[in-house]
C-alpha cells in the first residue's frame, strides 16, 4: 500500500524518550487510520537508541554527517510517505495530535508550520530567552527579510509534502535547518500555513543539544546570508546616497553647523562612504550570482534578464566615462595647485577636486573589472 505519512525524527542519544515518541507516533497513525511509517534518523547514538528504534517498529536510518539538519535531511530522503512531518525525539512535541498538520497537507498546502505560541503554554516548556527574546527576534527578522507571516520560525514540528522537500533542496547541517525550510519555501513561493501546537517540557534528564547563543547565531547568520538584499544591497544604497549627496555639497562649498565647519577632511570621509557603499553593491551582486549558480537560491526570471541588460560593453562604457571624469577632475585639481606655484600652505581648493577625482577613478576601475567578471559568468549562463 502507498504510504501517506512519514513521521520523521532525528535522534542523538535519546534513549530516555525515544520509545515514548515512537509509541505516540504509532498510536496517532492507528487512531486516525493513516497508512504511515516512523523514520528515525540516528546521528551516531551510543546509548542504545538504535535498538530502541528497531524494537519499537521504526525505520532506522544511520546518518554519518553530524548535526540536527543532517540527521533530518538524511531520514527524510529515506522516507516513503507522500507527506512528511518532522518532530523531535525528546518528547517535547505533541505527536498524538498531528491531524491539523495532515488536514492542511491534504488541503494542498506545501508546508505546515507548528506555532507553539498559539497553543497551550506549558510551564517551563521553553527557556525564557528562547520564548521572549531569541525566537521572537529571529522570527521578526525572518518575516521581514523573506516577506512571510510565520509566528514561530523555529518550531521543530513541521509538515510538508515530499515533492516540496525535493524542490527546496535543503542543505544546512545544524539547527538552522528549521529556518531553511521556511526560507526556501518562501523563495519558491510554495503554499505555507501554520497551525497551533503544544510544546511540553523535554522528557530527558541530560542537557539539550541546542546551544542558545551559538545556535541562535547560526540562525541569524543563515537569514543574513540568504538575504543579500538586507546584508549588502540596502546598506549599499544608504551609504552611496548619503555619501554622494554630502560629497557633492562639500565639493562646492564647506558646510557650517553651529560654528563648526565641515570641509575637505569631512569630504574625505563622505567620499570614502560612497566608495564603501559601492563595494557593498558589488558584494551583493557577486553573492547573488554565486548563490543562484550554486543552487542556494532559486533562479528567477529577473535574474536571467540581468545578463541581457547588464553586459560587458555597457559596463566598459560606464567605467571609461567615469574614468575620464576622474581624470578631468584630477587635471583641474592639479591646475589649481599649479596656480598656487605648487604651494602646500592652502590645499583646500585643490583637495576639494582631488578627493572626488580619486574616488571616481577607483569606482570606474571597479566597474570595469566587475564587468569583465560578470561577462565570464554570463558565458556560463548562456550555455
Structure description:
By secondary structure, the chain is of the alpha/beta class. The protein folds into two domains: 5-225, Spore Coat Polysaccharide Biosynthesis Protein SpsA, Chain A (Alpha-Beta Complex); 228-382. Helices cover 57% and strands 11% of the residues. It contains 13 helices and nine strands. The strands form two sheets. The chain has a seven-stranded mixed sheet, sandwiched between helices. A two-stranded antiparallel sheet has the order 8-9. The longest helix has 35 residues, at 348-382. It is elongated and about 95 Å long. The two termini are 43 Å apart. The mean pLDDT is 87.
Number of domains: 2
Helix segment tally = 13
Rg from C-alpha positions?
28 Å
- State the name of the first-level CATH class of the largest domain: Alpha Beta
- Give the low-confidence spans: none
The N- to C-terminal Cα distance equals 43 Å
What kind of sheet is the major sheet?
7 strands, mixed
Order of strands across the main sheet? 3-2-1-4-6-5-7
**Helical percentage:** 55-70%
**How much beta, percentage-wise?**
5-15%
Helix/strand order, N-terminal first: EHEHEHEHEHEHHEHHEEHHHH
* Shape summary: elongated
Amino acid at each position: 500500500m502507498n504510504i501517506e505519512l512519514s513521521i520523521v525524527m532525528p535522534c542523538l542519544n535519546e534513549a530516555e524518550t525515544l520509545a515514548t515518541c515512537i509509541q505516540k507516533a504509532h498510536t496517532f497513525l492507528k487512531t486516525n487510520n493513516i497508512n504511515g511509517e516512523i523514520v528515525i534518523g540516528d546521528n551516531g547514538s551510543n546509548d542504545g537508541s538504535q535498538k530502541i528504534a528497531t524494537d519499537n517498529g521504526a525505520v532506522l536510518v544511520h546518518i554519518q554527517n553530524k548535526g540536527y539538519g543532517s540527521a533530518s535531511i538524511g531520514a527524510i530522503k529515506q522516507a516513503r510517505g507522500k507527506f512528511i512531518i518532522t518532530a523531535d525525539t525528546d518528547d517535547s512535541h505533541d505527536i498524538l495530535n498531528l491531524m491539523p498538520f495532515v488536514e492542511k497537507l491534504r488541503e494542498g498546502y506545501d508546508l505546515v508550520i507548528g506555532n507553539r505560541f498559539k497553543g497551550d503554554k506549558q510551564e517551563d516548556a521553553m527557556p525564557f530567552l528562547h520564548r521572549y527574546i531569541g525566537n521572537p527576534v529571529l522570527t521578526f527578522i525572518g518575516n521581514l527579510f523573506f516577506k512571510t507571516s510565520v509566528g514561530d520560525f523555529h518550531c521543530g514540528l513541521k509538515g510538508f509534502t515530499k515533492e516540496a522537500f525535493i524542490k527546496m533542496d535543503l542543505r544546512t547541517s545544524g539547527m538552522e535547518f528549521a529556518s531553511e525550510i521556511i526560507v526556501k519555501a518562501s523563495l519558491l513561493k510554495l503554499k505555507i500555513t501554520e497551525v497551533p501546537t503544544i510544546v511540553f517540557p523535554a522528557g530527558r534528564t541530560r542537557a539539550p543539544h541546542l546551544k542558545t547563543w551559538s545556535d541562535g547565531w547560526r540562525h541569524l547568520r543563515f537569514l543574513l546570508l540568504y538575504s543579500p538584499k538586507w546584508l549588502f544591497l540596502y546598506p549599499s544604497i544608504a551609504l552611496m546616497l548619503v555619501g554622494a549627496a554630502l560629497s557633492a555639497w562639500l565639493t562646492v562649498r564647506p558646510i557650517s553647523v553651529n560654528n563648526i565647519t565641515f570641509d575637505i577632511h569631512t569630504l574625505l570621509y563622505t567620499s570614502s562612504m560612497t566608495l564603501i557603499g559601492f563595494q557593498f553593491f558589488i558584494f551583493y551582486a557577486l553573492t547573488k550570482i554565486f548563490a543562484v549558480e550554486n543552487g542556494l537560491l532559486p533562479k528567477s526570471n529577473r535574474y536571467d534578464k540581468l545578463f541581457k541588460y547588464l553586459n560587458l560593453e555597457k559596463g566598459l562604457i560606464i567605467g571609461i566615462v567615469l574614468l575620464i571624469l576622474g581624470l578631468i577632475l584630477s587635471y583641474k585639481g592639479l591646475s589649481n595647485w599649479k596656480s598656487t606655484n605648487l604651494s602646500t600652505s592652502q590645499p583646500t581648493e585643490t583637495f576639494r577636486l582631488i578627493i572626488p577625482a580619486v574616488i571616481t577613478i577607483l569606482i570606474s576601475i571597479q566597474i570595469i573589472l566587475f564587468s569583465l567578471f560578470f561577462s565570464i559568468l554570463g558565458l556560463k549562463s548562456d550555455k
